[in-house]
Design goal:
Length: about 160
């Protein structure tokens, strides 16, 4: 009986790995959109990312439900039932696959977390630069140069229609 649930667990972990890999790939695309300041592309990527996150949550819920069942079958609390414990208790036909799949999932999640930190920093830096530029323009501290490279005035002139 546990073998059926172990098969389901393997399929679910495999699905989660694929979804997290898709999230990693989409995060790379997001990084390129951030770096190129392509707001339309970034918006598309974020929508796709949100869809993937919904799928990841569903797969995670399925995995947790399977773990609950296995914990009851093995008379353990759900908190005790780690992947390491499952590998210890599972028949040998499942141990190598479960260990490999778990390692793969963990590795992908770690890589995704690192990439997301980089993307977060890029967005923060981009926002800081935008705020600085806006402050400079609004405060009138930006020097405006004409076509011949001569200083013509301050940045405030860029935003205000002086004829109005």
């Amino acid at each position: 009986m546990p073998a059926d649930f172990l098969d389901k667990l393997e399929r679910t972990i495999n699905l989660e790995s694929e979804l997290y890999q898709d999230l990693f790939d989409i995060s790379l695309t997001k990084q390129q959109a951030i770096l190129s300041r392509d707001i339309d592309k970034l918006s598309q990527v974020v929508r796709k990312e949100e869809e993937l996150i919904v799928d990841v949550r569903k797969a995670e819920t399925d995995r947790l439900n399977i773990l609950d069942i296995l914990a009851k079958l093995w008379r353990l609390s759900t908190k005790e039932l780690t992947l390491k414990k499952i590998v210890e208790l599972a028949p040998s036909s499942h141990t190598n696959r479960l260990k490999r799949m778990g390692d793969n999932l963990l590795s992908t999640i770690k890589e995704l977390a690192a990439l997301n930190k980089v993307n977060e920093r890029l967005v923060e830096d981009s926002l800081a630069l935008t705020r600085l530029l806006l402050r400079t323009i609004v405060d009138g501290n930006a020097i405006v140069y004409g076509h011949q490279g001569k200083k013509e005035g301050r940045g405030l002139n860029l935003l205000l229609n002086q004829q109005a």
